[in-house]
Amino acid sequence: MFADIIIDIRHEKLDRIFQYRIPESLQEELRPGMEVLVPFGKGNRITKGYVTGISEICDYDLSKVKEIRDISRTGVAIEGKLVALAAWMKENYGGTMIQALKTVLPIKQKENAQVKKRLRLLLDAETGREKLAFYLEKNQKARARLLAALLDDPVLEYDLVTKKLNITLPVIRVLEEQGVLAVEERRVYRNPVKEGTMGRKKITYTEEQKHVIERFRQDYEGGVRRTYLLHGVTGSGKTEVYMEMIRLVVEQGKQAIVLIPEIALTYQTVMRFYRSFGDRVSIMNSRLSAGERYDQMMRAKAGQVDVMIGPRSALFTPFPDLGLIVIDEEHEPTYKSEQVPRYHARETAQERARMEGASLVLGSATPSLEAMYRARRGEYVLFEMKNRSRMQQMAKVYTVDLRQELRNGNRSILSEKLQEMMEERLERKEQVMLFLNRRGYSGFVSCRECGHVVKCPHCDVSLSVHRDGRMVCHYCGYSQPKVTECPECGSRHIGEFRAGTQQIEDIVKARFPGARVLRMDMDTTRQKDAHEKILSAFANEEADVLVGTQMIVKGHDFPNVTLVGILAADMSLYTDDYRSGERTFQLLTQAVGRAGRGERSGEAVIQTYSPEHYAIVTAAAQDYAAFYEEEIRYRELMGYPPVENLLAVLVSCEDEELLDRGCRYLKEFSMRFREKAQASVIGPASPGIDKIKDIYRRVLYIKAPDYGMLTAVKDRLEQYIEINPGFDKMRIQFDFNPMNVG
Ligand code: ADP
Ligand code: ZN
Ligand code: ZN
């Protein structure tokens, strides 16, 4: 028997795995992740290494292979646990061990030290409040916002202020000139809030919160570790519940990881954790340099931190005694990695928690079908919080049938109802957000008269129009000529659904000449910081209407927004994949949730050609349970995840002919598992984009009820690919239960 061993895990050079012979005496005991002592280099110096895999085959000259000396008995190193997790990821998601190791291990990179800036309040509390009143009176909203934040916390990280509070540089300069604040520079990364300045507001938990906390406490103190799904409407107080759970775990001397999608990692959220855990909390985000990230990981390893908050990658924080992992907004697609290994943070967290004896809490207002399915089957403990903690009303939602608008002679993208309501808000000096979802939009064909959408007869997903004019299915490759007449009602008003934010901005300006309109989309946010500038201007009420793509629906609170218009709910409904209903429901729920964050209650208008579609009906009624019932029935019927599992095999190659031949072989080979794994093989099809930079692309889907069977198929495919030189010119990647095709 032979073991794959990685010697140095701290450096960028993490690119070589060495094989060693396993002595008879250790063969029973040795596992991936274990720390071992091996002779290394010319002098055979005894060096520490980690086992990354075990095999019966040796790839090198047998006479040169050295033998493992011993298993290191100094206790299990944190690295060992992460190496074991990497082995699990390689097994479950494909890719190489090196790729998996690079994902989980903190890697030191050479780089120059960066200067960190922070802002310090120079005024005392009373002068500060006077100044604040002055800014408010002058309607200088950005200045007021910054000063109010500084009055809460006298020292703030510069980045936090510019990026999360949406304050622009000139505003900081003005306050600096006025002697309100000072900009300081430091070399080391430290937290902006010190122990002494913590001020957590005392709150009385609602009955729902108490129930959840109590159940968790009983389990935790009784040594029971589980996965919990906390389904709570927005504002039901989920974050407060996480914090109480974390406190419990930290009191026992353990640590916690909190995953939050980067876009939702707002200033307010970050500050709430700081106030609760002070210097013992650390934040990870993509703006940190590689060096800063590494430093944070080392602080965590050294026990200087109890709580790590961050996006997906924070899951691999090397805590010595991990007690809890929280995944907030569990349904977000960003928890799935789009790079090899294409892991999902939810499943990987579950495995890490299992390995290390930690609990896992998943939270969402709109849980993913995966999570709810498992909760319903008893794999997860389900907690529900149905009420808002502070008595705010949920927004009132109107659904407008765009087919009816057309019949009434209104060809504008703004319905009569929405126009009326916008008029009211503009008069009352309240703000409006208009939302045009383009995520996943793929050029589906629909009838403007009856709403009919042309779908694949085999897969029940929308067909997309290709450059060559044909309509194709991105799952199975089915195609047909473009229709010119609605197959349902015979209308000639059928075609690709077209609408852009620019066009909407123009329409709004034409219809409401007095309104100040801002637009946020890929075009207007191309420049650095443009994103922040737009949000900042809107927060300062420098505009009445904000038109934007899905970028605008998340994470930001604008208390003066009392109306949200969703212009074409259909755009996400008829994307060409099986998650489109789920994504639409989530987006609509979030968008509706943007209205009425402040004192005044909010309203939302959903415009659609498919008012009877269950995703729209249930989103308008804000009824998750009803949505789930319908959606899971569809998944069952079609055998889509989470009921069955789907493995996408992405194949790309410069030579199209070779690629097609390769795909045929792969398909034939996969078909062998039809019986054993109850698998069906679909495709090859186009993954949305057929060619990127002259490299042709195809995708093959393998569907099977059992995930383990699919990983076994993947293993066999990997072997098949390796021994057949014909695949040398192709790049082949695996994606389990993919989020996006292509
Ligand atoms: P969620 O994470 O479910 O959206 P939050 O935890 O962010 O909800 O709570 C929404 C708001 O309500 C926050 O400002 C929070 O401080 C407040 N809040 C939460 N629980 C309570 C409570 N029991 N009493 C008073 N305010 C609360
Ligand atoms: Zn029609
Ligand atoms: Zn199809």
Primary descriptors:
742 residues; six-stranded parallel β-sheet; seven-stranded parallel β-sheet; binds adenosine-5'-diphosphate; alpha/beta; binds zinc ion
Task: Describe the structure in your own words.
With 742 residues, the protein is an alpha/beta fold. Helix 1 (78-93) crosses helix 2, helix 1 crosses helix 11 and helix 7 (207-221) packs parallel to helix 8 (238-251). The chain starts with a strand and ends in a 6-residue tail after the last strand. The protein contains 22 helices and 31 strands. The strands form seven sheets. The protein has a seven-stranded parallel sheet with strand order 11-12-10-13-14-9-15, with helices on both faces. It has a six-stranded parallel sheet with strand order 16-26-25-17-24-23, sandwiched between helices. A five-stranded antiparallel sheet has the order 2-1-4-3-5, covered by helices on one side. It is globular, with a radius of gyration of 28 Å. The longest helix has 17 residues, at 707-723. One zinc ion (ZN) binds at residues 456, 458-459, 473, 475-476, 478.
Major beta-sheet overview: 7 strands, parallel
Total E-strand runs: 31
Query: Any low-confidence stretches, pLDDT <50, length ≥5?
Result: 187-197
User: Helix count, per DSSP?
Assistant: 22
Supply Rg: 28 Å
Which range best describes the helical content: under 10%, 10-25%, 25-40%, 40-55%, 55-70% or over 70%?
25-40%
The bound ligands are: adenosine-5'-diphosphate, zinc ion
Task: Give the distance, in angstroms, between the N- and C-terminal Cα atoms.
Answer: 39 Å
User: Which descriptor suits the 3D outline?
Assistant: globular
Strand order of the largest sheet: 11-12-10-13-14-9-15
Strand content: 15-25%
What's the average pLDDT?
Answer: 86
| Secondary structural class | alpha/beta
